[in-house]
Structures are given as structure tokens and as C-alpha cells.
Amino acid sequence: xxxxxxxxxGVTGALLSALADVGAEVLDIQxxxxxxxxxxxxxxxxxxxxxxxxxAAAVAAHRLGLSLGVVTGTGDNARPRHxxxxxxxxxxxxxxxxxxxxxxxxxxxxxNIDRIRRLSRYPxxxxxxxxxGADVPTLRTELTRAAAxxxxxxxxxxxxxxxxxxxxxxxxxxxxxxxxxxxxxLAAHSGREAEVAEVTARAMAGELDxxxxxxxxxxxxxxxxxxxxxxVRAEVVLTPxxxxxxxxxxxxxxxxxxxxxxxxxxxxxxxxxxxxxxxxANRLEIENGRLTGRVxxxxxxxxxxxxxxxxxxxxxxxPLSRTVAIGDGANDLDMLAIAGLGVAFNAxxxxxxxxxxxxxxxxxxxxxxxxxxxxxxxxxxxLDDGTPTLAPSVDHRDH
Length: 399
Prior knowledge:
- The chain has helices at 11-20, 50-64, 96-108, 136-150, 173-177, 182-188, 193-204, 210-219, 228-235, 242-251, 264-274, 302-315, 333-338, 349-354, 367-370, 375-384; strands at 2-6, 25-34, 37-45, 67-69, 85-91, 112-120, 125-132, 153-158, 168-172, 255-263, 278-287, 290-296, 323-327, 341-345, 357-359.
- With 399 residues, it is α/β, with parallel strands linked by helices.
- The chain has three domains: 2-69, ACT domain (Alpha-Beta Plaits), CATH 3.30.70.260; 85-163, ACT domain (Alpha-Beta Plaits); 168-180 and 223-384, Rossmann fold (3-Layer(aba) Sandwich).
């Protein structure tokens, strides 16, 4: 039985009350309201005669101003669902051509779309497809390739229980959690910013060995007073949506970590401000109140970030399949590869090509949509605890 029409309070209750009067048993029920228009689907077992149930439904639907469709059959016709997956599509805008391409590719792989729901309408339009019958790795490869041709972002992840439960989310810092590169902020105080920025860009693109390039860049800081660290802390600007991302993850009971090829003297303050659980970053050597131009201990590089992710997961007693890693540079690739979900956030071309998922909008909280969390749920939680909710904007630097 399919019922459609304008939604209003009490419609579903009134219809089911009429069906109850003739002894109907509910075997399955689904309802969705889109812009005030109700669609209700039911699978029912008649209490007596099917015609009696059909007549009761028709009378109730007419009284409520609803359209009714009825199909009779035997059994509840429910098929076991295997190969569950969640396909999340982000677009600004999200064109019908993009949705057509995604749904066609899903069908071509023999998968079925069981449910579609919108997760956000701003700052990007996000739609989630709940599918079954999918070979997730194969479908992910095909959809990622297709998405690039129409300018949308897409994520494909196992569905079912794999979609639920506590997770560890680990973020890169420079150009991910924050909008700048800390080494460049420090270099600006020594008059070497342009030189350092060029080396940073080449390192993040994978053209230079990260450790070697880091030591060379840190050497340009030799002689700077340690007080410059406090100045740089004040200059750091969070990526739009950073606070919303961390706040929402913490509400869900998730653990959040930061890993950075930058410096604990800056990253540590950020972690304390945001309530981060785990931190791994390089440490600058300071002697007699001045930077020596060296780092202390092992450098947190590409391999070091992956090791940190593993260590955080072990501490939280979570398998890597329950982890999410977010980063933008070549030194994030190992971390993105071993995580259950690796997200390239506004990343360099090399990283976008190799990561499981790529998000290319300037709002860090858009990562929440990849986890099946809707904008409405985020804002409702903010409203419940009195947190001001701002529509994400590149101008809302502390959002």
C-alpha cells in the first residue's frame, strides 16, 4: 500500500487507526516527507478479507485528502540484503546530471538503491544512497572516477553495522585543521617566508623528502626569540567548520587526534582549545630563550603520521577499520591509506588521486556528512546545548 499527499500532524495515525479497525497487521512500513509532501509505504496482512482492508484504506485516504495505491500479493517479499554500502555525494551545486551518473553506475554494477536521503542543503548539497548488492571496492573505484568527470565529491563505505559505533578521527593540522602552514607563519618573523613557502609546496606535492625539507626550513628559524611562538599561536586561523566537526564528533563519543609535521608548541595549544584527545607533532629545540633551528627527537613525517594513527587506535582499543584520517599533503598518504576511511581534504592532486575519498569544499565539517551525519542533526544538537549555529562560511574563521 502506497499513500501520498500533503503532510500534516496526525495523518499517519488516522490512516493506521482505520486499518486497525479491520484487523490489519503491519509487516513493513517506511515513510518520508519531502518539502511537506508525504509518501508512506506499508506491507500489511489483512485481518480478514483483502477487499475489506482495501475499502477501509480507500475511505480513510479520501477523508484525509491522500492518494492511495494498493497491490496484493503473498508473503512480505523482503529480500535478504547483502553487500550493503553507503554512497555519499556532495556537490555545489549538485546537478541532475551528476545524480543520474551516480545512480546509473550503481545499477550497472548490479547494486540496488534501497533508500535516498538528503544530508545537507548548505554549504553544499549532500545526498546519501543506501545500497545493497555492491562490491564496495569495485564500486568505489568506478564512482570515484565518474565523480571527477562531473565535478562532485563522492564517498563509498561499507554499510550495516560497519557504519555505526565509536570511531577514532585523526586530522592533519596545516592546511587541514587550520588554513595556514605553521612553518610559514614562523618564517615570516625571520623574513624567510617566501623561501620557506616554496619548499613547503614542493614537499606537500611529494617532490621533496619531507624530513630533509623540514630540517632545512626549521634551520631558517635559528635565532628567533621563543616569544615568537606566542605570536604565531595568535595568528593561527581555523578552517571553517573545524570547531563544528570536533564538537559534533565529541558529542557522539568519538575520539579525536591531531598529527602534524608542524610543531607541538603550536599544535598543543590548538588541541587544548578544541578538547583533542591525542596529539603527535615535532618539537622545536629552544636554548637560552631562542630557537636553535633544529627539532628535538624523531621527525613526524609521512611514516610517522601512520605510526601515530596506529598508536592512537591501539590506545583506544579500536581496529583500524574504525578510524578516519583527514589530510591534504603527500606526507598524509600513508595515514589515509591505512585508515578505515581516508579523506583527502582540499588536497594536492597526487593525494586526491590516491585517497579513498576526496572533499573539495572549504568546510571541514562537511566530513561529517561522509559519516552519515546530517546538517539538521548537527544544528539540532547545537540548539539543544545553546551553541550558536552559523551557516558555514569562509568568513566565519572560528566556526
